[in-house]
Design goal:
By secondary structure, the chain is an all-alpha fold. It has helices at 3-25, 31-50, 56-79, 85-102. Helices cover 81% and strands 0% of the residues. The protein is flat. It starts with a helix and ends with a helix.
């Protein structure tokens, strides 16, 4: 089990997903097709690679946290979305959960 390599791979998946979702949110013509191609061609093979180093549950958990953080930042900085205190607390709790999962036993 090589969690650090899996973390890097899952982070790459989250970046790819972030790009796809940003394209989807933009007003680009055929954005659904572009986002689907980005997701299908890039995410699925990289996800398969991550699953070689860590279990599906751990990969999915880390992917969800990374994706949430990346999309949170994209929403704030690219789309001027506003967040409230509850949302910020939720993100902080997600980070705390990720930290607890990754702390060596």
């Amino acid at each position: 089990m090589n969690i650090s390599y899996a973390l890097i791979i899952v982070f790459c998946i989250s970046i790819i997903e972030g790009v796809g979702l940003t394209v989807l949110k933009s007003n680009i013509k055929y954005s659904i097709i572009i986002a689907s191609i980005i997701y299908g061609i890039l995410v699925i093979p990289v996800l398969n690679e991550a699953l070689q180093f860590e279990g599906i549950g751990m990969v999915n958990f880390i992917w969800n946290i990374f994706s949430t953080l990346i999309m949170f930042m994209i929403g704030i900085y690219m789309f001027d979305e506003k967040i409230d205190n509850k949302q910020l607390i939720g993100v902080c709790l997600s980070l705390a959960g990720l930290f607890l999962i990754l702390v060596p036993k």
